[in-house]
Amino acid sequence: MTDQPSIATHEILVQAGAQALPGFLTLPAFATGLVIFVHGSGSSRFSTRNRYVAEVLNSGGLGTLLFDLLTPEENEIDLVTRALRFDIGLLSERTVATLDWVAAEPALAALRIGLFGASTGAAAALNAAAERPGQVAAVVSRGGRPDLAIPRLPEVEAPTLLIVGGLDTPVIEMNREAARHLRAPWRLEIVEGATHLFEEPGTLEQVAILARDWFLQHLAAAAA
Predict the structure, then answer these.
(1) Does residue 2 fall inside a structural domain?
(2) Do 94 and 115 form a contact (C-beta atoms < 8 A)?
C-alpha cells in the first residue's frame, strides 16, 4: 500500500503588487512543483471545482496555490457589473505579480511552477506564461478562453494542455483557433459528454487526472 504524502495547507496573503490577495497554499512534503490556479468568471479561491482538482494534484505530490484575483471590494463591484472578470489585462497583471511574489518567497522560490487556468483565467495564465517564460514550466486550461490571449500566444514557451468538454462546442472551436497560434508544445483533450463546467459524473475527475499527469511530466522535465 502506497503512503500518501504529508500535506499541509495554510491561509496566506499573496502580495500582488499593491494588493494583498487571500489564498490557500497547500504543500505536500517534498513537493514536485507548485501549481498556481488562475480562476475565471465570477470564481474565487473557494471554487469547488478548482479545490477538487487541487486535491488530486496534492495527492500526486504537487503543491497548489488557490488565491483570489480580485480584492473583496473589486469582487463586490464585479458581482454587479460582471466586468472585472473579463478584464484580461487586470487578471494577467495580478497573475504576473503573483509569480513574482512566489519567486521572492524562500519556501517557494525553488519549486517549478505550473499554471492552471479556468475560463477567462486561462487567458490570464497564458499571458503570464508569455511574460515570465523562465518561471512557468507548464500550463493547463480547463474550459478556458485561450483565444483571449492570442496576441501573446506565440511567446508562450511552456507546454500547454487545453481541456474542453465535448458538448462545449463554441469553446472547442475557440481553443482550436488559439492552438494555431501556439509555438510551444500543446495538446487538446476533449472530455466526451462534458459541458462547460464539467458537472457531469466523472468528467471533472478526468480533468484532474489529465492536469496532474501533464504537470508531473513537464515540471519534472523542467527540473531535469
Answers:
(1) no
(2) no
